Amino acid sequence: MLTREAYDRYVAAFNAKDYDAVADFYVDPPLMTFFGVDIRSRQALKDFYAFLHHHVKESVTVLNFACSDTLTAIDAVIRVEAVKDLSREALDARGMHGFFPIAVGEVQEMRQFIFYTIKDGLIERVECALAQA
Description:
This is SnoaL-like domain-containing protein. It comes from Novosphingobium subterraneum. By secondary structure, the protein is α+β, with helices and mostly antiparallel strands. It has one domain (about 5-130): Roll (Nuclear Transport Factor 2, Chain: A). Helices cover about 30% and strands about 45% of the residues. It has 4 helices and 6 strands. It has helices spanning about 5-15, 20-25, 40-55, 90-95, and strands at about 25-35, 35-40, 55-65, 70-80, 105-120, 120-130. The chain has a 6-stranded mixed sheet, covered by helices on one side. Strand 3 (about 55-65) and strand 4 (about 70-80) form a beta hairpin. The longest helix has 14 residues, at about 40-55. The radius of gyration is 14 Å and the shape is globular. The termini are far apart.
């Protein structure tokens, strides 16, 4: 089970850009599919977040949290602030077609629903959806 306490540790590792610690929360190999991104290995997970966080500061504010032995569901606001320009071309080159370009200094806030399928206490699959404004 990915409890709220464990999820808070996960988010702390994420915010600290400790991608090894983040990857430790996942089965090996993980399966993440969201906004056009398909991650199927521990290294791909680390590479994806290293690239993204090279361009933006990202934070997660949890609004609602629910968990069971097989699912953790998060209703959260994801805030990204560009520290370096991230163009449509750069996103597309990385297969990040569902992500939005952002220029240095810009801020994007998105309400997301994130579903974590849990297997033996680890994250097996991640799926995300954006709330419509």
